[in-house]
Write a structure and sequence with these properties.
Radius of gyration: 15 Å
Number of helices: 3
Strand content: under 5%
Shape: elongated
Number of domains: 1
């Protein structure tokens, strides 16, 4: 694995960890009256920016946003997009394409 691949994998892990923690924070804030919440748009942005696995894991670990149809359908679609991009990036980096 070359340096670029390691950077790509490291970034992917970091973004997903941040997305997972933000789901935890938003779940905690949802229980408090008047607390400032993390917008659904921000959560979708993180998912689109390669944090979809973290958002999806956070949804089911913390039982957060699991009743919203657009999260149930949208986040798995973004996971497919994220994984397809990573697969293509690894193929391009390895020189097989």
């Amino acid at each position: 694995m070359n340096d670029t691949s390691l950077l790509l994998v490291g970034s992917f892990i970091l973004i997903n960890a941040a997305a997972f923690v933000l789901m935890l924070l938003d779940k905690g804030r949802s229980r408090r009256e008047g607390a400032e919440r993390i917008s659904e748009g921000m959560l979708f942005f993180l998912a689109a920016a390669f944090g979809s696995l973290g958002v999806y894991a956070g949804m089911f670990t913390f039982h957060h946003k699991t009743r919203k149809w657009y999260f149930i359908i949208g986040i798995p679609l973004l996971m497919a997009q994220n994984l397809a991009f990573l697969y293509l990036a690894f193929i391009l980096l390895s020189g097989r394409l």
